[in-house]
Write a structure and sequence with these properties.
- The complex is a heterodimer of chains A (232) and B (118).
- In chain A, the strands form 2 sheets. A two-stranded antiparallel sheet of chain A has the order 1-2. A two-stranded antiparallel sheet of chain A has the order 3-4.
- Helix content of chain A is 45%, strand content 4%.
- Chain A folds into 2 domains: 24-129, Cytochrome c-like domain (Cytochrome Bc1 Complex, Chain D, domain 2), CATH 1.10.760.10; 132-232, Cytochrome c-like domain (Cytochrome Bc1 Complex, Chain D, domain 2).
- Chain A has 12 helices and 4 strands.
- In chain A, a hairpin with a 2-residue loop joins strand 3 and strand 4 (169-170).
- The longest helix of chain A is centred in the first third of the chain and has 20 residues, at 3-22.
- Chain A is mostly helical and 232 residues long.
- Chain B has 118 residues and is mainly α.
- Chain B has one domain: Cytochrome Bc1 Complex, Chain D, domain 2, CATH 1.10.760.
- Chain B has helices at residues 2-20, 25-37, 61-64, 69-78, 98-112.
- Chain B is globular, with a radius of gyration of 18 Å.
- The chains are: A mainly alpha (232), B mainly alpha (118).
- The interface between A and B is large, with 38 and 33 residues.
Amino acid sequence: MANYLLIPLLLLTLSALSPAMAAADGSNILQQQCASCHNLTGPAATKLASLWQRKGPDLFYAGNKYNQTWVEVWLQQPGRIRPTGMFYMDHIKAGPKRDMVDQSTLSEHMKLDAADARAVAKALATMKANSALIKDEKHDPDMAPGPLGEMMFDKIYGCMACHQIEPGYGGITGPEIYTAGKRLTPEFMLSYIRSPQAWDPKIWMPNKHVPDTNRQKLVNYIVELSKENFNE
Amino acid sequence: MNKYLLSMTLTSLLLLPAISQAETAADNYKTYCMQCHGMQGNGMGANIQDMSVQPRDHTDAKTMSGRTDAELFKVIKEGGLAINKSALMPPWDSTFTDNEIHDLVKYLRKLCKCKHAG
């Protein structure tokens, strides 16, 4: 083939390939950039020594845990979800009135551009370990707790001991709860409240033995709470 | 005799996973209790700022000696409500084995340097 035909053909082929080549590979990003802090393969820690080594949440069941849209947005503007980091004992120090967060020990999460965030969120959505734990969880959005929701969360089940229901109010060794309704799937929340240890055998969240009806109400309280805009 | 030895070996192997998963009381206290009861066990944990009821000071010999070992076991296993105390103290029955809870009770007695006064 003459050169004057071959070169345009080659350029045409390359230009057709380039969008595909440029598209971010979420699985590859996860392996290259996330695996050093996140468990991508399971299983969860079964010994405290392993739990203490955890640098970020386990992601091998991310597709069953997170809302994909939230992941994509968060990865572009990551903010702190756990006020005391991953394992609280690594990030607190004795204070005059109580143990305090040692901010100097906390580090920021890496930020991704829009294309990479979309690709990673898509890849995470396919990671669906522990599906058996949520297959029978049926979320009923009509079981609204009304004004009792906060009382259930704060007083009856004492969840507020470890979780914040608004910025600066509540416990700090668990993840903030006021964004959980956007972050987590209702089925995951139902299952995790049913048995935290089924997902994470050594986690420091206890099983409060919440009856089915009240689990629905707690989850609906969390979903409603997340509709408030705490950043305004 | 050989059959006896074989049986003992197999039994030991079966028990091994359960034994190897037991944690020390100090490690359990650090992981689960310090978040509310504090790094020094004095009730001044990182979570207490907005609590309506403050966690027990485990170094307070006077108060801790008012509790029997059975009561301490019960409150760890079944939570505060089980002994008419706050629901903020959760039940840890899905986290600890009974043996681990017994070890934690002994650990609390070391922290308060006390026994039940009764």
